[in-house]
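User: Sequence in, structure out. Go.
Assistant: Echoing your sequence, followed by the structure tokens.
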Amino acid sequence: MEFSTSHQIPMSTHKVDISESTSSEKWSDIFKGQVGMEDSLWTEYLKRANSFDERTVDEWNKIVDVILIYVGILCNLHDISCLSSNQA
């Protein structure tokens, strides 16, 4: 099997929301021809993807913290009920 060394993706496969563009380069200029590995499109993509990933991981961490606290409280209540029933 032979792999292509060309790192180019055809222009027609990209769907990009240009409403949040912050770069000085116009999106229409980026999509002229094919998109290569060194294009500013990837820099913008990585910036947005990293931001999204950080927000997602922060949310997951908050959810896990709440679950762990809840489980800890339930375990303590269970232990207390077991100890009190043994003493009776």
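User: And one key feature?
Assistant: The chain has two helices and no strands.
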